[in-house]
Amino acid sequence: MEKNSAFGLGDATAVEHLEGGVTRKILKYGGKLMLVEVTMPKGGTGSAHKHPHEQISYIA
Predict the structure, then answer these.
(1) Cα(17)–Cα(31) distance, rounded to whole angstroms?
(2) Phi then psi dihedrals of residue 23, to 5 deg
(3) Contact 28, 36 (CB under 8 A)
(4) pLDDT tens for each residue of 5-30
(5) Which domain holds residue 30?
(6) Is the residue at 34 inside a domain?
(7) Is residue 13 a contact partner of residue 25, using CB atoms and an 8 Å limit?
């Protein structure tokens, strides 16, 4: 799938397992924007980070 496709990656992307039981899945990216789905246990936190693009996160 092309990086700037009109459709998201969805099930085509692997789930990344991060520390503390947090998972991340990239749903769509292109240009300077990335959309990710983040799952974390109750009370879970993410670690501070930065990146050059803007990011939208759906947290479940």
Answers:
(1) 25
(2) -120, 155
(3) no
(4) 555 556 667 899 998 899 999 888 88
(5) 10-59
(6) yes
(7) yes
